[in-house]
């Protein structure tokens, strides 16, 4: 609940917000002597301390904003004012003279005293903090740094875009962040976004007080950052032929080869994006993933790989590759050159070196690697990963930078200044903090925004396993073991991995509203957090998101179970198992709408529950076929492959369970050669004598191998024999 504050010298303060379950909502007005005729605004993230006065202040449409001559933030101010003017129907402008809205940068000691007199924020200091006062005399935003002024303005933007017509509650807001790292990671390697989109995305983050943009720029499937010394990293490493039969037949006339997907960010573009982010008080943390997730780099420069494991092209498969960098001095020199260019481009304190999911198989099998390990004094391949981190950290130290990496880097000794990003639950953060390292919480699956938000028909693809905004909001980011080490917890971060997020629209959909929960967990004091309040504020925040162009958004909470209909899509059917569940998009058609399918890639099998056999006579289905483009190591041998009963495969329907009697076989022949989805001719259900109750039906495919992976698009059970109308 919001900090309950006595009005002190201000006898008109009435709204003891702690008493209100719904924060900052109209209900609070019941404590007011004279309720405002404006609706109280929905603020996200919720501020630390809000103290309402009685009455309202009307900001004239053409008011002036003063007090900015001594700041560097003119361009940012112009942007914020433009946004407010456009969305609130005002025509505010900057002035050197007096203004109705005053921005004041204060000395930090004096500012700390000012704030302490109103609200207790001393423990968190005054960095990024602001004071926003709306009185009969006008509006004042004070801060001791420009980030604070900016955040005060973002709150004012929210106040003025609550259908207020410039009418604002008299209010004093003291606000400061709970955590210094309020991040979102965007994977631009698996799928790339345009520079204009990245800048817009950063704007959207900043408007919600998110301040770290972790930019995943290299991976097995692409290297997206121009490195001047190594042009093939992007000339070769930034391009791949997408997986599947449809892309394989999409011939590029210029080359006579299948068209490649790709692109990269030039250094000029990166400088522009970094400057843009800085103007929004967002730090970009670039990630150059070493020593694994290196296939694209090795495709560009095969001498970087383990001898005998060269790769001749960038792969379009997802998953965990065995390709890793080798241990040659030239490879370290390569990485140091890369990092020297990276640090020239990105001025932040941390450089992310990945370090996750390193498969040691190639290292273990290589005589040359064994030789080099001996020369380097590294005894064990597990320790090699750390050798990488330590060596590159040493190099980065000479450039005044620090390493951050995924929590695997903790598996051996780390330099004390290295920070750890905990993704395998919160355990990495707990272990890092126990060793005295700073840490960022980014736990899978809850903070992994590639997970779907719903399986409603038509919803975009993603990793299976629903994660809603409510799930994120409810995640305990400070378990007891971390509370004790609170000083080492830099903050938290959501990750937008893009294997299954092909378009910018879908990045938006998968990010919103979920990153707003991250914003509130990261910025707001825990005592002010309440899901009921957040959900209500979020609903009213929708108009602002629309105005920003964030129109594609997921549902905030788990949707009620989809009512059973005659036809169920594969997204709605129950899966027979839950090993590696993905909501995958078809590879066809190349242009226009593609279906998406929910599938356990280890066992493509679906259950239609409770079918009334007293009326069910026939079954129809629509199916798709997908490339099996997943690097899953030896697990490939465990993928369930059932042999065809006849010909080249069927959709097989079993009664009761997946071990039950076969009651229908729908041959796949009509779907061969069709890259998109195919409706198979309906088949009669051959039910055992007397079967009449409700039973489950199990659907699986027979096939000769893992490729292609057949998937259910929809199934339908009906009376009669004709499926023609369906
Ligand atoms: C990760 O998800 N491999 C950090």
Describe the overall structure.
- Strand 5 and strand 6 form a beta hairpin.
- The protein has four domains: 165 residues, Chitobiase, domain 2 (2-Layer Sandwich), CATH 3.30.379; 169 residues, Glycosidases (TIM Barrel, Alpha-Beta Barrel), CATH 3.20.20; 186 residues, TIM Barrel (Alpha-Beta Barrel), CATH 3.20.20; 152 residues, Galactose-binding domain-like (Jelly Rolls), CATH 2.60.120.260.
- 25% of the residues lie in helices and 24% in strands.
- With 726 residues, it is α/β, with parallel strands linked by helices.
- It has an eight-stranded parallel barrel with strand order 8-9-16-18-19-20-21-23, surrounded by six helices. A seven-stranded mixed sheet has the order 1-7-5-6-4-2-3, with helices on both faces.
- The longest helix has 18 residues.
- It is globular, with a radius of gyration of 28 Å.
- The N terminus is likely disordered.
- The chain binds acetamide (ACM).
- The site of acetamide has 4 residues, from loops.
- Acetamide binds next to loops.
- What is the helical fraction, as a range of percent? 25-40%
> By CATH's scheme, which homologous superfamily of the largest domain applies?
Glycosidases
* N-to-C CA distance: 53 Å
**Biggest β-sheet description:** 8 strands, parallel, barrel
Question: Kindly state the mean pLDDT as a whole number?
Answer: 90
Number of strands: 35
- Rg, rounded, reads 28 Å
Task: Show the helix and strand layout.
Layout: E1 49-58, E2 64-66, H1 74-88, E3 93-94, E4 101-105, H2 108-118, E5 130-135, E6 138-143, H3 146-160, E7 167-175, E8 181-187, H4 195-207, E9 212-216, E10 218-219, E11 222-223, H5 232-235, E12 239-240, H6 245-248, E13 251-252, E14 257-258, E15 261-262, H7 267-279, E16 283-290, H8 295-300, E17 318-319, H9 329-345, E18 350-354, H10 361-365, H11 367-376, H12 381-398, E19 402-406, E20 419-422, H13 427-434, E21 439-441, E22 462-463, H14 469-473, H15 480-483, E23 489-496, H16 504-511, H17 514-523, H18 531-548, E24 567-569, E25 574-575, E26 581-585, E27 596-600, E28 605-612, E29 618-626, E30 630-631, E31 650-655, E32 662-667, E33 678-684, E34 694-701, E35 709-718
Parallel strand pairs: 2-3, 2-4, 4-6, 8-9, 8-23, 9-16, 16-18, 17-30, 18-19, 19-20, 20-21, 21-23
Antiparallel strand pairs: 1-7, 5-6, 5-7, 10-11, 12-15, 13-14, 22-26, 24-35, 25-28, 26-27, 28-34, 29-33, 29-35, 31-32, 31-34
Helix pairs in contact: 1-3, 4-7, 9-12
Bound molecules: acetamide (ACM).
Acetamide binds next to loops.
């Amino acid at each position: 609940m919001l900090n309950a504050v006595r009005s002190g010298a201000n006898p008109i303060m009435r709204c003891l917000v702690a008493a209100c379950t719904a924060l900052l909502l109209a209900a609070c007005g019941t404590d007011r002597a004279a309720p405002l005729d404006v609706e109280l605004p929905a603020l996200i993230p919720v501020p630390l301390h809000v103290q309402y006065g009685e009455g309202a202040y009307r900001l004239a449409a053409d008011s002036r904003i003063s007090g900015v001559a001594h700041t560097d933030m003119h361009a940012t101010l112009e942007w914020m004012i433009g946004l407010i003017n456009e969305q609130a129907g005002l025509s505010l402008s900057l002035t050197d003279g007096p203004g109705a809205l005053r921005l004041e940068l204060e000395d930090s000691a004096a500012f700390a005293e000012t704030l302490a007199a109103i609200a207790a924020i001393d423990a968190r200091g005054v960095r990024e903090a602001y004071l926003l006062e709306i009185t009969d005399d006008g509006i004042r935003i004070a801060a001791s740094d420009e980030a604070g002024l900016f955040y005060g303005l973002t709150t004012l933007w929210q106040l003025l875009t609550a259908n207020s017509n410039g009418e604002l509650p008299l209010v004093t807001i003291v606000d400061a962040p709970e955590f210094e790292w309020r991040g979102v990671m965007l994977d631009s390697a698996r799928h790339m976004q345009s520079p204009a989109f990245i800048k817009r995305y950063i704007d959207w983050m900043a408007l919600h007080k998110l301040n770290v943009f972790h930019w995943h720029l290299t991976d097995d499937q692409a290297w997206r950052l121009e490195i001047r010394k190594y042009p093939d990293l992007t000339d070769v490493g930034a391009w791949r032929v997408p997986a599947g039969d449809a892309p394989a037949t999409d011939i590029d006339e210029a080359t006579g080869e299948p068209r490649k997907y790709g692109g990269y960010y030039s250094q000029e573009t990166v400088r522009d994006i970094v400057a843009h982010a800085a103007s929004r008080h967002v730090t970009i943390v670039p990630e150059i993933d070493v020593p694994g997730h290196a296939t694209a780099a090795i495709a560009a420069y095969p001498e970087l790989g383990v001898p005998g494991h060269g790769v001749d092209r960038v792969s379009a498969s997802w998953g965990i590759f065995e390709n890793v960098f080798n241990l040659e001095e030239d490879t370290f020199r390569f990485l140091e050159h890369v990092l020297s260019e990276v640090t020239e481009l990105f001025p932040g304190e941390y450089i992310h070196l990945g370090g996750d999911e390193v498969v040691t198989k190639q290292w273990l099998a290589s005589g040359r690697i064994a030789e080099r390990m001996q020369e380097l004094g590294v005894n064990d391949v597990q320790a090699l990963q750390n050798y990488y981190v330590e060596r590159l950290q040493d190099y980065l130290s000479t450039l005044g930078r620090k390493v951050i990496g995924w929590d695997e880097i903790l598996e051996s000794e780390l330099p004390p200044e290295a920070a750890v990003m905990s993704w395998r639950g919160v355990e990495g953060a707990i272990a890092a903090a126990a060793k005295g390292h700073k840490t960022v919480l980014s736990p899978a699956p809850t903070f992994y925004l590639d997970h779907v938000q719903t399986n409603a028909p038509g919803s975009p693809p993603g990793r299976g396993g629903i994660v809603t905004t409510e799930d994120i909001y409810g995640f305990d980011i400070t378990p007891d073991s971390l509370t004790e080490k609170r000083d080492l917890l830099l903050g938290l971060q959501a990750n937008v991995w893009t294997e299954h997020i092909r378009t910018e629209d879908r990045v938006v959909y998968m990010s919103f509203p979920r990153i707003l929960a991250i914003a509130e967990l990261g910025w707001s004091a825990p005592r002010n957090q309440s899901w009921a309040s957040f959900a209500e504020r979020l609903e009213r925040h929708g108009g602002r998101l629309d105005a920003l162009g964030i129109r594609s958004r997921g549902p905030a909470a788990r949707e009620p179970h989809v009512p059973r209909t005659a036809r169920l899509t594969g997204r709605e059917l129950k899966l027979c198992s839950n090993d590696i569940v993905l909501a995958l998009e078809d590879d066809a058609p190349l242009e226009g709408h593609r279906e998406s399918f929910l599938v356990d890639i280890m066992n493509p099998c679906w259950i239609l529950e409770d079918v009334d056999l007293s009326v069910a006579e026939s079954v129809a289905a629509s199916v798709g076929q997908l490339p099996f483009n997943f690097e899953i190591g030896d697990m490939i041998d465990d993928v369930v492959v059932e042999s065809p009963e006849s010909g080249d495969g069927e959709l097989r329907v079993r009664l009761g369970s997946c071990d039950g009697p076969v009651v229908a076989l729908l041959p796949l022949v009509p779907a061969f050669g069709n890259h998109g989805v195919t409706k198979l001719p309906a088949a009669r259900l051959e039910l055992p004598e007397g079967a009449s109750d409700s039973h489950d039906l199990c659907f699986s495919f027979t096939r000769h191998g893992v490729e292609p992976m057949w998937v259910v698009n929809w199934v339908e059970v009906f009376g009669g024999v004709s499926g023609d109308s369906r």
